[in-house]
Amino acid sequence: MGEYLIDNNVISAYFSGSLSEKAINFVANVIDQKPNISLITEIEALSWVSLDKGKEVIIKAFIDDSIVLPISRGVVVQCVKIKRGKKVKTPDAIIAATAIVYNLTLITSDSDFNKIQGLKIIDPRTL
To answer: Packing angle between helix 39-48 and helix 8-16, nearest 10 degrees?
Structure first.
């Protein structure tokens, strides 16, 4: 398993080509290692492409090549800790908890994750 968990906003930015060249190269290297995504990210990614069949094929192939991490008992416990400590949307808390439980660095451009203690983050926009 790789050392990163990829958030949906990075997936959409990567496949739409809206990242810098350095960020695209970084994300491409992570994807080449067998990417990790949360079950929530799978749902979000598949919902994002619902109107575009070409993108849907690409995203489904990406998900098929990924390790989709489940919402385990440990993720639930960590999610509750996150939700009790901060105002965080449940899907984001699940993604953050998944990263923490599996000791992964979250690759995201969503600054809402910055307020979650113990979460390691890389924002590809800052590369």
So the answer is: 40
- Tokens standing for residue 93: 């808390």
Whole-angstrom distance, CA of residue 46 vs CA of residue 94: 17
- Asked if 9 and 41 touch (Cβ cutoff 8 Å), the reply is no
Judged against a pLDDT cut of 60, whether residue 16 lies above it is answered with yes
In angstroms, rounded to a whole number, what is the distance separating the alpha carbons of residues 71 and 62?
20
Residue 94 token pair: 């699940």
Q: Could you read off the pLDDT of 48-98 as tens digits, one per residue?
A: 766 677 888 899 999 999 999 999 999 999 999 999 977 899 999 999 999
- For 4-126, the fitting CATH number among 1.10.260.40, 3.40.50.1010, 3.40.50.2300, 3.90.226.10 is 3.40.50.1010
**pTM, entire model:** 0.93
